[in-house]
Automatic annotation (TrEMBL):
Localization of this protein: Membrane
SUPFAM superfamilies, alphabetized: Concanavalin A-like lectins/glucanases
Protein name: 2417_t:CDS:1
Lineage, opening ranks: Eukaryota, Fungi, Fungi incertae sedis, Mucoromycota, Glomeromycotina
Spans traversing the lipid bilayer: 283-309
Signal peptide: 1-27
Principal location listed in the UniProt entry: membrane
Domain L-type lectin-like residues, every copy: 37-260
PANTHER family: RE50040P, VESICULAR MANNOSE-BINDING LECTIN
Amino acid sequence: MLFIKTDNKGLVLLGLLACCLFALGQASDNTPDAKNAIPLRTHSLYIPYIDQELQNRWFDFGGDAVINTNKHVRLTHDRQSQSGWLWSRLPLTATNWQVEFEFKIDGSNPVLFGDGMAVWFTKQRAQTGPVFGFMDYFEGLGIFFDTYANSRQSHSFPYVMAMKGDGKTSYDLARDGKANELAGCEADIRGRQLPTKARISYFKDNYLELKLHYKDWDQWEPCFTLSNVSLPTVYYLGFTALTGEVSDNHDVISVATNNIVAPPQRMKHPENSMYYQHSSSSWSGLLFMLKLIATVVFIGILIMVYRVYINQSNKRF
């Protein structure tokens, strides 16, 4: 409600400004991501990462991974032929969950760099291999942050993509996983000054969604949404990275996992995963534009009411 003091125009303007800010907040901050979330300490990781015994209660790390207790878990240094991993000790058993992690990919060479890193939700864990530092023929879901093109592609790199492994299918390394891709998006996530983050939301028998934060502060970009994603009965959360003839630093800075209590309404889209990538972004943009238009109209009405009020006040005197 807007309260106006008849002899104080400043209060009128203040009330108008408050209403405008509230309306803009309603238009821009309408995300259910943080609602009804219960933190899962068993699958979260923060500074200083390790205890006095140089271990972490909930995570194992190995390969070439090195922990800097003030900064990050470095999966690989900017050196050739490195492979490092970070895996949860316990399986992720929540029905609906959200994993948000901050990471950084950067190196000294501005032209030649790679190969990339991955986040995993798989039946196997803590095994080194050729797929971004993890084993081939895995069972579960892998999301790859690929920074090096092994072959000519229609999209640019870095490229983020998802693959569902059945334990029998090999990753298409020669063609950057083209034969395995469920969905993906181009994302300039390397060498960013802003915190680079990924947010993965999973609702069992409903959908899995990936959003990325790398363009601007508190701006999450939709990457893809997959319908009817099934994960193994038991699966672990893992992070891996790999370098070959080209290299980069691949760092995990923090991991925040939450159990989502109340899932949203079931999505109804065609069985075309790539459709979700574009439609999710399109619908989000359309919804934001509609809210923005409504906000502008609302502000215009308030200004008109204020002008009428001022004119009537002037007539009285």
